[in-house]
Write a structure and sequence with these properties.
Layout: H1 2-15, H2 29-40, H3 44-63, H4 67-73, H5 78-81, H6 83-107, H7 112-130, H8 156-177, H9 182-205, E1 213-219, H10 224-227, H11 233-251, E2 255-257, H12 272-284, E3 288-299, E4 304-314, E5 320-325, E6 363-365, E7 368-374, H13 381-389, E8 394-399, H14 409-424, E9 428-432, E10 438-440, E11 446-449, E12 456-462, H15 470-504
Parallel strand pairs: 1-2, 2-3, 7-8, 8-9
Antiparallel strand pairs: 1-12, 3-4, 4-5, 6-7, 9-10, 10-11
Helix pairs in contact: 1-2, 1-3, 2-3, 2-6, 2-8, 3-6, 6-7, 7-8, 7-15, 8-9, 8-14, 8-15, 11-12, 13-14
Amino acid sequence: MFKLILIATLGAWIGFANPLFQFPLAALAFPLGLAWIGLRATSGKKAFKYGWMSGTLAAVGCFYWMVIPVQIYGGLPWFIALPCPVLLAAFIGLYFAFFSFGMYQAGRLLNGIPLCLLAGFAWTTMEMLMGTLLSGFPWINLASAFAPWPFAIQGASLVGAFGLSGILTTLAVAVLLYSTYRSALWLALGLTISLTCFGLYQTSTVDVGSRDYTVSIIQGNVDQGLKWSPSYQAETIKNYSKLSLDAIHADAPDLIIWPETAMPFYLQDHTPFRKAVEMLARDTNTPIVTGSPAYRIINMKTNAYVLYNRAWLMDSTGRTTQFYDKEHLVPFGEYMPLEKWVPFDKLVQAAGNFKSGEDNHPLRLNGVALGMLICYEAIFPELAQKQVERGATVLLNISNDAWFGNTSAPGQHLSLSIMRAVEQGRWLVRCTNTGISAFIDPTGRIAAVSNQFRAESLSLKIAALNKMTVYHQIQNRLALFVYVMTLAAFGFIGYAAIRNKGIAT
């Protein structure tokens, strides 16, 4: 089993984005190895055990960067910070353990093409649950490993990233079984040819729109250790203002974008800092979208308040009449789900718990509707889906990946964001503090990308699009179909196993 664990683990480490070397095709070794473990195991217990070990090791390689925000910026000691990614990986590993266990059970009754198809349904179900249960964290999305190859991810416009992961898993298991079942070989060839041909067709024919709307991304590269210092606030505004003026003079953008919490103060308060931002928008006649913390007083007598992670739209007159409050908050970062029982301070450098936004709509400006996604909201398909349902013609992801330093996290975050562009058939503009900032077209191609850890601006003409993808139109029905098929299949397998056991006794 050691070799199978190694195959699965290395497949994840090499296949997903990382700072050293990424080869997307290697990611197929991850589901292949997990399925192989299940089919080779001599008992369900061993399948679960070795599947969990593989999944945990793979997840540790993908989550190691968590140590940085927890220890350096969260202020927790190393002996507490180091186990954090391991504990999360151990939990995520349970999903993969159940996949291997499912393959063990299915392999006792099915073979060939039915087994390959069930593996795909099971993987898709697993990823959907990973994105839903206990707040959800669908960071290890198999399809996103192929984001560097746009032709390979076009299937997401039909079945979404989770569905495409299932198809890729079916392909991987077909490769595993081809020497035993000739039908599996033909299935593998058919899927490979279909995905490639459809991908090449899509990337060459999809209409990316009439690119007549110029957007400038401002990547401030503000040191996370200084960002929230009151003495550094004026320098932060000066930095963003200079970069914005350079972009305005060079490219005359229709819109300036600043990252998540780019303004480390309450922009809603009429302070000199707020007036400086107003003056920039008014003097240049250029609207600005910027991140900033916000608050709402809930009790005037006690001065009690709640906080929001907010994106403001400041128009060219300096008014802020539209905003978006982050909906999907980071557990233990922006809020404490176990605050009464967990004694650790929050990993945010502001007082109080953040509150989720409610009834958010796209920010509208001059005929363009900006569907906002703040930070890791871009890894959740349903949030982009909701913004497009409400009229978004462009997706905008603002983030502060400075938390993660020079690790694999920014690259993984970018890959996951790319999937939202393909799923929804929209341009996605990604603006971050330290990178990776990018313009992504509706086929997932990176049209322009920033350098990491460099203060710079990036400008590009994009298009506001209204056409809906197949995936957008069927998302809810597709999810229900996958759940029902997976549950029915494993229900039948369980029934057959019990019946056969009864006959044998």
